[in-house]
Amino acid sequence: MKAWEDKIRRVVPYTPGEQPKRPVIKLNTNECPYPPSPSVEQAMRALDADTLRLYPDTEALPLVKALSAAYGVEEDQIFVGVGSDDVLAMAFMTFFQGEKPILFPDITYSFYDVWAELFRIPYEKVPLDGTFHIGKEDYYRENGGVIFPNPNAPTAIAEDLDFIRDILRHNQDVIVIVDEAYIDFSEKPSAKELLDEFENLLVVQTFSKSRAMAGMRIGYAFGSRELIKAMKDIKYSFNSYTMNLPSQMAGAAAAADQDYLKHTVQKVVATRERTQKRLAELGFSFPKSEANFVFASHKTKPAREIYEALKKKDIYVRYFDKPRIYNYLRITIGTDAQMDQLFDALEKILR
Amino acid sequence: MKAWEDKIRRVVPYTPGEQPKRPVIKLNTNECPYPPSPSVEQAMRALDADTLRLYPDTEALPLVKALSAAYGVEEDQIFVGVGSDDVLAMAFMTFFQGEKPILFPDITYSFYDVWAELFRIPYEKVPLDGTFHIGKEDYYRENGGVIFPNPNAPTAIAEDLDFIRDILRHNQDVIVIVDEAYIDFSEKPSAKELLDEFENLLVVQTFSKSRAMAGMRIGYAFGSRELIKAMKDIKYSFNSYTMNLPSQMAGAAAAADQDYLKHTVQKVVATRERTQKRLAELGFSFPKSEANFVFASHKTKPAREIYEALKKKDIYVRYFDKPRIYNYLRITIGTDAQMDQLFDALEKILR
Fold first, then answer.
1. pLDDT tens digits, residue range B216-233?
2. Please, is B222 exposed, middle or buried when counting C-beta atoms within 10 Å of its C-beta (0-12, 13-18, 19+)?
3. Which of B89, B238, B244 sits opposite A118 (nearest CB)?
4. Residue A272 near chain B (CB below 8 Å)
5. Residue B150 CA from chain centroid, whole number
6. In which band, very low, low, confident or very high, does the pLDDT at A16 lie, cut at 50, 70 and 90?
7. Dihedral over alpha carbons A63, A64, A70, A72 (to 10 degrees)
8. What is the C-alpha to C-alpha distance for residues B75 and B61, in angstroms, rounded to an integer?
9. How far apart are CA B207 and CA B229, in angstroms?
10. What angle is formed at CA A263 by the lines to CA A316 and CA B247, rounded to 5 degrees?
11. CB-based contact, B309 to chain A, within 8 Å
12. What interface predicted TM-score (ipTM) does this complex get?
């Protein structure tokens, strides 16, 4: 061993969904099958490359103003970051500071425990019930903070406002984060409706799914002035300029086009409903999806075998080799044509 | 006080250089006065907005390949991040893990102690000598790691390869980081020449200064395979996708145009030499600059007064209200026309 090697911090790196280089049917990372709003392309074309020589606006004001107008939330109640991963990591750093464990579901977004470990935050995973639902009463006890996605991932199950209100009522002395990466695909309202009621609520959303801009890395949070200011203070304390100019301009353009967002979501939801019907006919069961993916298990064929057989046919879905969910596939909703190819392949595999 | 308020981590936020919204002569944040390579605009125009729906390449391969070709460094010896602040913060997290204090100059880039505090790394500031030079012997003692900029900021003083080699020879059991944000403006070679000699050396550079792309947020590091792999493991463990697609494409285009880089640097250096001559005539003294700024003190007029008088004339330079350097101004090199306006203003202020 070299003398300096013990100075290196070692971790087990996270394995993201495969990003194959050759053309495949890619239903494994919950991307949107449709392009972003045409206004995004216009914003990129309009960008004057000469202005790149200057540092970007620290507060990403063009984007913050557009989000404020689109959602009717005050500018000082909005925090933006380089993808919702950046926003969430910053929220963990800012709000989960106590000695008591933070609480989140055992089956959920796989970065929560990673960030908790990274920032040395004690945590406890709260098991979902037998039907993969969050038991709200499980969060009615002393803790250092609460975070859960709604809809949850990879289960695709969404809860209503009363459910979230109940969790907030029982957690008035900590920060509660609702991670709404998939909320646009749900019929349930966003928890931002509760912002006036609860100053300790943070609602996190993203441009990566419904706005079809995963390649742009834009996430944002709504919260009380006090929460948002605290997050900004932490962020600016160690990196003042993170969101680059193209993201600020393209993000602002996309946020201004809420009609296009609704249109995209309608198409994805229509295909999702069709997909669920067809998957049921093929012998799959799944929680009713309120996201842009279906979390499905087959009655006879093990998920891992289906995953591998699909991969051989150049159709990528997501498989998690983890307790409780090792017999499930997370299948992103693609175009109708892509889903038809999936159904054809599944028919052959399951025959 | 509300019940949840004690859950918030409080910090003193960093104050970045002012970014005035109206047109001024902006010599306060070391931006480049010239636009980026024309290939950057072409890359932005060529970007297909439809591809933004997909997550960007985790490893930012287009950019890594372009840097590898431009600098003759192997791909697996290159780490890229969202500005060199991101790269440096990741390096602090990965390499400064011990109980012993890391060492850096007392007058240097103001984020080093911020990151050390944030990641709870013990540190010790080593005073520069009376002429603002780094005393290399001060680093010949037990420590948890070493970091310094070369050229240093805000002093603009650069050291040669032998100096850096000596520090490395005396620090073979820790990681040594040389932060080369301004190296392109110096006649001294980059420490990357020492990569084959020292596997514990990390060299960090940026697109924000000489490549005129501060608005794009691109930084990178060169190091041994082992150091680069450790940084990637840490980074991917908590955020797999940070560099967006426009940065990857525009960055690759800029890296491929080394001729343009040299041309820009020549122009800035010519103006810097002229600026130093004129500032000396006006009664300023300063260390000989090897960066894109001059760190100057006037023989009679206090720096703060000059700073404020210039600001009233819409000319922004940087003033640090800190021990040892409170009588200095950091003046970024702008265009010749901008510097002429500065000289005119200074003549009036100093009359």
1. 999 999 999 999 999 999
2. buried
3. B238
4. no
5. 9
6. low
7. 180
8. 9
9. 22
10. 60
11. no
12. 0.94
